[in-house]
Amino acid sequence: MSARWLRPAVRLGAALVLPFVVPGLITGLIWALPGDPASIICPPELCSGTEALAERWNLDKGPWHFFSSWVSGALTGDFGNSWRLQQGIPVAELLEESIPTTAALVSLGLLLLILGATGAATRWLPAKLDPVLQAVGLVPAVVMAMSAAAALTIGYGVEQYSDQANLLRLGLGALALGLADAALSGTVTGVRGLMESERRQRYVQMAILRGEGTLSNALPNTLPALAGQMRARTLHLLSGAVVVEVVLQINGLGDLLWGGTLAQDFGVVLAASFGFAVLSAALLLLQALVEIGTELHVRRSPGGVVA
Amino acid sequence: MPGAPAGRVNRVLPASLAAAGLALLLVPGFFAPEFLSEPDMANAFAGPGAVPPFGADQRGRPLLEYATQGAWVIALPSLVAALVVMALSTVGGLIACAGGRHVQTVVQIISEILGALPRLVVILVVALVLPRDGRGLLPIALTWAFLSAPGAIDEASAVAARLGGSRFVEALRAHGFSRPRIYLVHLVAFNLRPVVVRQGVETFMQVTFLEIALSYLAVVSNQSSFTHADSVQSWANLLDLGYKVVLGVHSGHALALGLGLVALVAVTAVAVTHAVRAR
Amino acid sequence: MQIALAGALATVVSTGATLAFYEESLPTSMNPLYAQSMVDNRVHELVLDRLYYHSPITNELTSNVTNQWELAEGGKAVRLTLKKGIRWHDGKGFGAKDVCFTVQAMLDEGTTSPIAQKQRAVFAGCEVEKDLVALVRFTKIFHNPRERLGFQVLPEHIFEGNTAIPPDHPFNTRPVGSGPMKGSMGRRGVAFEQVDNAHHEADIDKMILQEAQDPLVQVRTLQNNGVQGIIAVPPPYRPEVAASDELALKSYDLRSWWFVAVNPNKAYLADKRVRQALNQLINRNELRQLSIGVKPDEQNPPCEFISGPFVQSSPYYNRAVEVSPNSDKDAAFALLAQAGLKQVGGRWQYKGQPISLRIGIKAPLEIEAPDLLSQIGNQLSAGGFDRQEFKISVDEWNTKVLTGQSDDFDLLVGKWSFGLVEDVNPLFHSRSGDKGNLNIFNYNEKAVDSLLSQFNTARTDTQAQDAYHALHELLASELPYLFLWKLDTKSAWRTEVRSNTITPYYYWTVFDAWKFEP
Fold it and tell me: Is residue A105 part of a domain?
């Protein structure tokens, strides 16, 4: 296979296996946790049903048995019931609520980054603003989220989980994700650096002399790198979403993952990490498609040229 | 930049800032007390004037102790994590120039999968798995470093690929340079240095922010700390105390100190990046 | 500026007839068979009915669901006649089959619950004699059998007769009960809705339970009328609540007392003189002042020192055993020297090895008594002991500490809460079979076991009191625990909430009388 197609091919392959490899790895890790969910609910010293509970939850024959049982259920959409976090509630129901919420949170945060990237690429955002963005980016996401959470709780009180408050919560969370931890400032300076470096290339200078646009020439060549940068940023947002969701009490995937891990609710942890893996795989897929599309566009013969 | 010959990069100022920042971050930790002082309620929430240099907490204990204990928690593990990422990304860049396509493919597949793992969950599970007496930031920082390495390797490989990869090496060999010199000097020192160091300082900052986030999450979840002994205060405790200024508590000085420490980490990172940037 | 904005928002948002309050945490389960915390116990009181309970006003054993009872089968069974017209929240009839189903569920080995396990030593079975008549059988003759019928009744029809109730049954989050309120747990709180019934007619239509935030945020939200109550206000915030005309602090009798358990299995702590020395090193006045904020000369403090395993208001408390509110270093050092410990460079050593005390505390207790762990550590350090401090999560406390598997600790700071019956046998009896199942460090002392057996077999209140008075005296000398204090639990409610009688331990027992006039 030609080298230029290798990278997108690897990404496509990884996108396909990720939703199962990630839960598998997580299973291996959570198996190492001290104790087990059955013993937490029914400690052998106080309760005689520990083994029966372990058998009910497929915990009695090792991690592979547990994982393969989980996969066979997951393939039919059955993720089982929550054991401890929301006892008895189908995990699929929890996922249905969480995935769109996290997707919305990360998308809003990403929107901020895309706006910043576009502004930097087109030079609409002046470089003089970079120190301001960097100063704002110094604030950790957890501090922004803490302040927002306190204001929401005091302001809304019992209505803090109403639709209006949840929308505001999502917006504040997206702001925290996008601005804090140098997310926006890093995106702006990264894209600006990439585009300025590309602008200095001779072919772009020649294109300008020909009267062509800078972006139309530079963008196809920088698109794979930009896609890679944005994917890395999105993964960073996904990771940061866990903290923001927990602090701001947003019912997303990160909050589910955190609560499930602390409670050793393995079904919830695996399903939530499956959700994260699906989102990551979607990003990988997108990046692969962008790379493929760019390659096809760049190598397209212009009309009228004799081969 | 004034005073610098045209085409030369002035590294003196950023290098000085970087050295000062690293010294401020690393050295005070060695003088951190093992336990906080006895409370002195008469000095509760005292400002820097009353309890120099940073004021006091709600029990009159100097915030300097929080700052030094927090530095002790963060500094060395962050540095180690940064060095690990730098080493791995350097290796990634070297493989891009020296390794065959198969090696690069394998590295890329591993990188894609590792890079797509939900990091904070892996971190949390690692933190919970550690035995009580082995809890600390170092294992978590190392885990974070290994999970961040794929992105760093990717970027270093891209830089090496832009140079021409193995053809770059061949060209320099044709000029009579030895392989060690080509790899260590021309590739790593001249070309990979800026991106590798930038990845390292980003990891340094990320581990600092990660520690603050994990410490705060442990507090709100009524858990034992994941990153340090329960008798030690981290910068998260400073920020937790400080953010209460929005609730009318006189803890603005704690917030200022907490954010100032975070700014110190960021400024140090930026200074290091500028000090090693390419011409 | 943020507070002003928050205040403005609060006036715009109306709470209507919904009563909102903060609890210490979300319940772990809405199924009483899987209760793990006091939060669970309180929530179950709203949603389900106990067969019998003690009236908070008269202390008499009473019932909302039974008309009459009689002993049967020579005292080994009780025949209960249930009231007519009681319905479950889904409209189905409440009857004898539900009572018997609940007993059978507790007896079923497939119900993997420690609570059910304990009840298997009490109940032998149940028979439905008529629609509203159930015969409950016990394993033996009990002195006051109705005291054993304090369990909540579960609906047979929800479980379709399957008596093996697992912990992941949907009932555990969305229960169907017969109590004054129907409850449903979400990820952020529990929503309650009033349901009219033959035996309940609550005045409040809706309630919302929310998980406790930062205590300061809770108090501010309460002041802004964002919520109307806080179940447990940490002591440092009580003065602020008490100072407000719109808020009222109400006592919530939990009969809880705080302790530092000492590990007698460690060689240097096996000698009781060392434990007595530690007791002398602890300055309770200073601890109380620094962690809870109570001054030594305060009148009617919410935090009362104790010298044994009972609260001072308990009939079992032995007033002849004095508390030691202050430390006595000289006495402590003398005891340590007698026990063979040596001080080298100001630090105590045992057989040439320096002693470093590993001290743990149940993590949520640090909210009620901030910095208690570090203050205890400071005092012991001042007395010449090195130390390491640890916070212990609730899960680890329940699975390791309470089951006697925390031998790596030297000292553990905790709190016990009791209902009306202060049975301390599980705490101090040596572990064997079903005895001593809450004995933290597997303390084993024959004289203590003997006194605990005396209490168990007591036929009169006087006999029971004598046994526990003697136990108090013995434990104050043996010191498997350093007894600290009883800390009053206070709830805060806005004055719009009226007639809010709080039942000891269960809290909501007389909720029907509560009124909310926003």
Answer: yes
